[in-house]
Specification:
The chain is of the alpha+beta class. It is about 20% helix and about 40% strand. Strands 1, 2, 5, 6, 7, 8, 9, 12, 13 and 14 form a ten-stranded mixed sheet that branches. A four-stranded antiparallel sheet has the order 4-3-10-11. Strand 1 and strand 2 form a beta hairpin.
Length: about 200
């Protein structure tokens, strides 16, 4: 991830080891690609900028096509128009939360080799070896022990403030597993705490 590599060479002191991060601008330009695209999809390339906040779920289906399953959770039961919706595609899971007039992406998981993130022309996808990641991320994976490394997303305008980066509620998580003595990416998740 070239653009991400450039930033993930930067770290902030974490509780146990340095914490890799990227700027908010770099994050918004990362694209979500791959997978089978249905006839309703307008593009096989979608950036986080396109899907972080949408006016309606129709925008999501224009980008990714019809989901294989959709599950709504309304809250509080029947007394509100607010909801959480889970959209499942082959190799892609999305969770959106609607509060008042905004529909925001809360989590995303890329679970198959058919789906990938592209940052600065470089792919990050399930199934690839962790040895091709930037040295900082690769070291964080080795140091972690749990098989999950979070790349923090700096808040807009706060990429030079270590405290702000460490307290960021948005991150890209790289879940890994060992396969034949080699670490590979099992899953890639995006997570942010909704307001």
């Amino acid at each position: 991830m070239e653009a991400v590599e450039a930033q993930t060479k930067k770290t902030v002191p974490g509780q146990h080891h340095p914490t890799p991060y990227i700027t908010y601008a770099e994050f918004r330009d990362i694209s979500v690609e791959g997978g089978t695209v249905s006839g309703k999809s307008s593009s096989s390339r979608t950036t986080f900028r396109d899907i972080l906040t949408v006016a309606s779920l129709d925008e999501v289906t224009r980008r990714f096509g019809e989901p294989t399953s959709t599950e709504y959770n309304r809250f509080p039961e029947g007394s509100s128009t607010d909801y959480t919706v889970y959209l499942t595609y082959d190799g892609l899971e999305l969770k959106y939360r609607k509060r008042e007039r905004e529909i925001k992406l809360e989590t995303m998981a890329l679970t198959s080799e058919e789906r990938f993130l592209r940052a600065g022309g470089v792919k990050l996808q399930p199934g690839m070896g962790t040895d091709s990641l930037s040295p900082v991320i690769h070291k964080a994976i080795e140091d972690d022990g749990d098989g999950v490394v979070g790349v923090k997303v700096a808040r807009p305008g706060k990429s030079e403030d270590p405290r702000s980066i460490l307290n960021s509620e948005t991150e890209i998580q790289i879940w890994t597993k060992k396969k034949a003595k080699k670490s590979i990416i099992k899953e890639i998740r995006f997570h942010r705490i909704a307001p």
